[in-house]
Amino acid sequence: MDKKIKKKKWTVGKISSISFGALFVSFILYNFIFADKGSKLNVSAEKINISDVRKGQFREFIPVDGNVMPIKTIRLDAIEGGNVERKYLEGGEMVTKGDTILKLANNNLVQNFVREETQTFRLVNELANTKLSLERNKFELKRRLTALDYDIDAAKDAYERGAKLRDEKVISEQEYLNLKRAYDRLVSNRVIEIESQKFDTKSTEHQIRQTTETLERTRRNLEMIKGNLDNLFIKAPISGSLSSVNVEIGESIMPGQNIGQIDDLDAFKVRATIDEHYIARIYEGLEGTFDFAGETHQLKIYKIYPEVINGLFSVDLKFENELPADIRRGQTLQIKLQLSENIEAVQIPRGSFYQTTGGNWIFVVDESGDFATRRNIRLGRQNPRFYEVIEGLQPGEKVVVSSYDGYEDKDRLVFK
């Protein structure tokens, strides 16, 4: 009789299968729990730039271009109109204050001057004749009063003698009355003569005042027209460089028309254009520096032009110290315009990484130097060389500052 053999539950194959499955599950669990799930990229260490995070003096400034120009430019505008009769000087020449640049011709202005001059002479003669007439009237009054006083004295004597003779019955009452009437008439004539002369004198003096006032107005008009004639000679108001004369002989010029300009070369300023992004941070007194001939020179903003054109606005800066030697009009200066004072700050060098991250994150190099991991950061102010680090980095760490093109979705860079 055959003996029944029990089937073995744990065969070598089964044990091997279970062991392999356990190992596989363990591997999966390990990778799920412990392994780095982030995406990574192998990069060549020679193709990236690594810089140190440092702490030191930080100053925010922006680079701007400035053009050297005269601190004062005087426009030459015609005060009177006319035709260009003569040009004494051309553009590009040096002039001294008072030098004649142009002569204009204006016949109407000349005729007005002649008319006013003639009117002035007429009024002067009229005033002189009126004053002479007043003096003559005064002498005539004295003469007539002298004659009247003589006649009054004679009539008074006759009247007083007639009164005595009437009392003595030598003459009649009628003869006495005739003598009295003759005396009274002469006395009344004297009073009337004085009043008449007062009226004539007052009228003549009023005429003299009117003529004098008219003469003064005419003289002022004459002086004004004479000044206008002088304005036909366009002269240099300051000494400097006559940069342009924009007219030709025979050309008709209107009052107020610009015919050129003079640049004052005794001093210079710098005009710079700045991006409108900074307009709220620019103010009068803001300082800047530029390097010239191996030295650093100071500038200060003294005037701001608020008009924004094509995204730019302008400022004028003056030299704080002595004007640098050999500097010339039209020269372009590279200016560092200081927007803040020096502060102690953590900072990293500027780099192309910013175009990708916007300063919100960066790759920080591990202490081993074998890889770099992505880290969120926050940057603050900046200048042409550094970014200010507000949080996320510590001095002594190293960061990748080169371009992050192709790294946007990576969490780790492995150097090879």
From TrEMBL:
UniProt-recorded Gene Ontology molecular function terms: transmembrane transporter activity
Cellular component terms (Gene Ontology): cell envelope; membrane
TM segment ranges: 12-33
InterPro entries to which the protein is assigned, alphabetical: MdtA-like_C, RND_pump_MFP, UPF0194_transport
Subcellular location: Cell envelope
Major place of residence: other
Organism domain of life: Bacteria
Coiled-coil regions listed in the entry: 208-235
Keywords assigned by UniProt, alphabetized: Coiled coil, Membrane, Transmembrane, Transmembrane helix
Domain (Multidrug resistance protein MdtA-like C-terminal permuted SH3) ranges: 345-404
Recorded family membership: Belongs to the membrane fusion protein (MFP) (TC 8.A.1) family.
Protein name: HlyD family secretion protein
